[in-house]
Amino acid sequence: MSPLALARSFLDAFSAADLPKLRALLADDLVFRGPFARFDSADEYAAAIAADPPAGVTIETVASFESGRTACVWTLFRKPGIESKMVQLFEVEGGLIKRITLVFDTADFS
Q: For strand 70-79 and strand 82-93, is the pairing parallel, antiparallel, or unpaired?
């Protein structure tokens, strides 16, 4: 699967709260960096999502591209009471997502 296809599958699984599918897309040694959280393994990331599932979330892709083993997806993230533009950079290795960098304005969540 291409990096962009993996990124889209990840976003679909995340918005559907399909944790088994989401976890299957991640390398065991996933590195996740975002404004509110940092994780250094896929299990740690998956446990955090399981503890606070993305209920009522919709994700609309605004733009996306891939280059080499990297995909970038700009989205409009919505859940009850929150709307935020987000950019995620996905780095792929061995057919799995190895690193995710998430950027958004934290003021949208206050």
A: antiparallel
